[in-house]
Design goal:
mainly beta; globular; 285 residues; six-stranded antiparallel beta sheet; single chain
């Protein structure tokens, strides 16, 4: 069952979003000490930087128990609520044209479909009305969407945002939750093979070709790419990097336990590659 549905039944985990400076020198990643920029009880998660890198969108669940979308402005160090709806919105992702953001919306009857809003959280509208239940998504280019669609097993599907009534094209079965754009028309995902184990793979949306990249570290679930083509992931309190130009081995970047973080999960890299958003559980005082 998708995590969103589990959250509805069990309540969300308490997570915070941390922000750290990110540096890449001769293929080696380093991160500055992370700063907790949400720092409150409850669920703050799923960060995604805006294209100018000056803010990121994220999902937050507060006193009303609704998942809504917020924007954190880095210079102002403030959060602004963008959506206030009876439905719940997750996974905010900037639209390719920069005029708004797309979300996974849990509708009144629990249907999960892809919606979009203007930049200020107004004008909600369906992007794909026939594909459901959608769990996660990434824009491969201005029109092509790559989707994690629930099922037994979950599938990776390609859909055209210009054809809202079209069905998705299935390109892989039994995939993980992390669907991330690498570059134009290329998206990474994890294929879960019962024999070979999980593999991070890349899908070229234009050719429909899939390329095996590397097996992820034990316990790694979410991935993020730097502009220079290095992939980052986390397991426990440790950050890892994999650079295809440096071989097949994952390299440890940092152990964030000393900074008071536990259970590091989602990561997001800013468009310029100079900041890293980190989702984690604060260590108990």
């Amino acid at each position: 069952m998708l995590w969103i549905a589990l959250c509805t039944l069990q309540g969300p985990p308490a997570t915070d979003i941390y922000l750290a400076g990110l540096h890449v020198v001769r293929g080696r990643v380093t991160v500055d000490a992370p700063l907790n920029v949400t720092a409150r009880p409850g669920y703050d998660n799923q960060p995604f930087f805006l294209t100018d890198g000056r803010a990121f969108l994220y999902t937050s669940i507060r006193e009303d128990s609704q998942a809504d979308i917020y924007r954190y402005d880095i210079d102002k160090k403030t959060s602004v609520r963008l959506t206030t709806t009876r439905e719940s919105e997750y996974s905010p992702t900037p639209l390719p044209n920069g005029k708004g953001f797309s979300v996974i919306r849990v509708e009144a009857d629990s249907t999960q479909r892809l919606w979009a809003f203007d930049r200020d959280g107004s004008q909600p509208r369906l992007v794909l009305d026939s594909i459901k239940p959608v769990g996660y998504h990434a824009w491969a280019d201005a029109h092509a969407l790559v989707l994690f669609v629930l099922g037994s097993p979950p599938t990776l599907q390609i859909a055209d945002a210009g054809s809202p009534g079209a069905r998705g094209e299935v390109v892989a079965h039994d995939i993980g939750r992390s669907v991330q754009r690498i570059r134009r028309a290329s998206v990474s995902f994890v294929l879960r093979d019962s024999v070979a184990g999980p593999w991070l793979e890349a899908l070229d949306v234009r050719s429909r070709s899939v390329t095996k990249l590397v097996q992820p570290p034990q316990g790694a679930d979410f991935f993020a790419w730097t502009p220079g083509g290095i992939v980052l992931t986390a397991s426990g309190t440790k950050l890892y990097q994999w650079d295809p130009r440096r071989g097949d081995a994952w390299e440890e970047v940092a152990d964030l336990a000393g900074d008071g973080l536990t259970n590091v999960t989602r990561l997001a890299v800013s468009p310029k590659g100079d900041r890293l958003a980190i989702v984690a559980v604060p260590a108990a005082p």
